[in-house]
Fold:
Amino acid sequence: MRTSYTEASEAAHPPRAEAELSIDAAIAYAVELHRDSKLEAAETIYRRILALVPAHADALHFLGVLCHQTGRHDEAIGYVEAAIAINPEFAGFNNNLGNIHVERGNLDAATRAYERAATLAPTNADIANNLGALYRAQDRDEEAEASYRRAIGLDERHINAHNNLGLLFAKRGQIKEAVQYYCHAITLMPENPDGRRLLGMAYYSLGKIEEAAEVFRQWLEQEPDQPMARHMYAACSGVGVPDRAADDYVEQMFDRFASSFEEQLQSKLAYKAPELVSGALTRQLPAPAKQLDILDAGCGTGLCGPLLAPWARSMVGVDLSGGMLERARPKRCYTALEKAELGAWLVDHPGRYDLVVSADTLVYFGPLEVVMQRTAAALRSGALFGFSVERADPTLAVEGYRINPHGRYSHTQAYLESMARQTGLRVLSLDEVALRTEGGEPVHGYVVVMRKP
Structure:
């Protein structure tokens, strides 16, 4: 999304007397703290303002956003709805209420909030685009198309709306129309990687792998140091396939992902790996008593953290993406969040952890020998290792693993079992699951729990 969480309404409170100027200054200071992720201090000021002026719409709204960022979703909705009751004509409040409902997976409530925002701000192209993304996630394709076209009508250079229309046509199998929109997005912002990336995606999602490889080859030819072009060309062409995704590729991709409303929407509605891995681990764990030192390996935005927090004496999240770590920080369940390469972190912390959890991180590794040996060395005696990977067809993955055109690696069950034997870990459970939905189809994988003797 493009609307700022810290956008204030223009009519959130009555005409200001001298005493109210200090409240305005306090709001401005709290917003500055909020933007700097100094959430406790910001929350204190918001609450002090509301103690003085209980019907201060901006303070209610900002406090609601902050509560949402820190996992107090019901409280967040209450505050934002209170702000809307005071100033029902401000589109930004309704837009952010929609954002909260989206991340909770409440599509009906999100739709109502976005539709109100679109009615209140009919010339806001970002809101129209956001509403289209929600309709697309609900398979309301005609309404999604209308919203995207409305966004483009309001802002002819709205790259996200062009890309989203391309995604919509690709979903329908209308590759010619999808390519037209992706190409138009490239002409609007040739330096922006999303158009090229999505054009390649449109081809490989329809099984046109050679065409996808050519898109990425041309991109790489124009930008030889572009990490995404390099990795995706290797994935689609089979040329120069690395043993694991390069650090700069992972960092670039997930930093972009961290702030992408459309992909956040898709992930929240269809992404199940954190819940599945955490669930498999909790079936092997004793009753929670804040007794374990936990490593969240490739923590991303911290989706595993709250699920395992009842067991955590300490919990460290490690990720290459600074953008993801910033989204994990407000969850307040991590002792530390560290920007680091996972293998190097494991080497530096031998015998440190009672539990290592890794949801959809090993999909960026081909051969797993090194990372699993390092994980085993970082575990204490009797400790658990829970992770997810995507399932590979043994007839296509003769070495036990392979890279796929979407850029992730997949692994066979036999390979995972052999890795356990090589690293001295005992497989406690290995379950085949659907990890997410992609292109309308389930992505099958394995959720595995191992124990160090």
Observations:
- Strands lie at 292-297, 312-319, 336-339, 353-358, 379-391, 401-403, 409-411, 426-438, 441-451.
- The chain has two domains: 18-164, 266-451.
- The CA atoms of residues 5 and 96 lie 7 Å apart.
